[in-house]
Amino acid sequence: MEYMSQEGYDKLVAELRQLESVELPKVREAIAEARDKGDLSENFEYHAAKREQARLLGRIRFKQRVLEFARVIDTKRLGSDSAGLLTKVEITNLANNSRMTYTIVSPHEANLLEKKISIKSPIAQALLGKKAGDTVEVKVPAGIQRFRIESISL
After folding, report:
1. What is d(CA 121, CA 140) in angstroms, rounded to the nearest whole number?
2. % of the chain at pLDDT higher than 90
3. What count of Cα atoms within 13 Å lies in the side-chain half-sphere of residue 68?
4. Angle (nearest 5°) at CA 1 between 130 and 122
């Protein structure tokens, strides 16, 4: 089961519709054009289009499966007293006193540019269940980092 925000769910549905209604028909058209050119055994365009079709079908199946097991979380029922899924957590890196704010989201919604980290990431795992004022140690590839939780909100 995958828990996610309504925004993340809607985005996945839109991506799936895009793949099924725009991308897949383009690839099928490319396959038909390449097939019309003759000998398929030495037709590079045909084989490239078939590979692209297989890649697209794999992505479509993956997104369908994610949506099949997705459950949208009602943010009104969430508390903001401890860090958890869909909470915004402001932390301070104790090594250099830099502040960061991240929203903990499902792996399918994670996007570092939008400051959304996966609930399965080491930092999010260390923050889960902690409260404002707590200090956590996180084992990251660069070693162990210590963070202080400044605030938690929805």
Report:
1. 10
2. 58
3. 6
4. 35
